[in-house]
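ok so i was messing around last nite and threw this chain in just to see what happens. nothing serious, just curious
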Amino acid sequence: MPEASNVLPAREYLLVALTSAVVTFLLVGLVRKLAFRIGAVAYPRQRDVHTKPMPRMGGLAMYGGVLGGMLLAHQLPVLRAAFDFSDDPWAVIVGGGVIVLVGVLDDRFELDSLTKLAGQVTSAGILVLFGLQWLLFWVPWGDDGAGTGSLLVLDQNQGALLTVLLAVTMVNAMNFVDGLDGLAAGIGLIAAAATCTFSIGVLARNGGDVGSYPPALIAATLAGACLGFLPHNFNPARIFMGDSGSMLIGLMLAAATTSASGKLNYSSTVVTKDLLGLLSPLVVVAAVLFVPLLDLLMAVVRRTRRGESPFSADKMHLHHRLLEIGHSQRRAVLLIYLWAGVLAFGAVALTLFDVAVVAWCLAIGLLLALLVSAIPRLRELKRS
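result:
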């Protein structure tokens, strides 16, 4: 059985994240040259915001950063326990490698949607094969009026199906949001940082149980990879992450939250904060991906109403609308960062601090984000 440690390895996680960031940052230059050499280049289209050919495949550098962070963690005596007592990190390494390979092929040859979906399902299936899947799921009913909710115990097939569906949904949500310089990398950084914060909170509640190390490790390496890629990708970008990067972010977020779900204490309780704690993996993911998931849903409805395929492209995404009302590219990206950050860290704070105080702060933060987003419209109304 894993032994508990009284000292949380926060410094080790920070070191792993910084290592992932440095490795990613250094690899981007090599990947950029490789992308130009093999023709993995995005040429401007009518719906695109960029105006000149841009190399893709940035996800390859990000995956290199993830491997660098994982390698360091494997060599650190404290974090090596994440590999000794769990196969979750190995699941991410192998599954991430497969989805990056699919993404690289798409960045170069533009694969059809069914082929990409097959690659996404295969990568999610690899997570399941390594034992990284949902086993228990808390629901707020079935308690005979006691107010404690109940647990759904999932068999192997149900857990595998739920894991694959969550992973594929998150992969495609991150893929949809990758439309402006730095947007997907920034949202990935926010999501991973929030998930890492939550996972360290779970680790603290479990008394430093080393069995709870993997989710924070997965999130820390992803946060570092996004951080290292962002300087190359923020407007004006010198490289795009491509599907190889956006799909890697989605898969690793799904892996981190699925791993965290298996480390929660599912004891019956009626305390609101504890109930939120039981649901936190999904709450954090839903919060941080609210913007891309809403954008995905609106795109499907919009295209279906026009009689088009849900996978057809257009220039009506949320980031396009922010540009239309008068925001610059940088300001539009920063606004979406603000929305994602308020929602994600608000969800994490609900599990750590007083619910009423956090709810008020969250409401104020959302109101501020709404007002800042509407500034161009308010200026137009003032002029008229």
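not much to say yet. Residues 10-383 form one domain.
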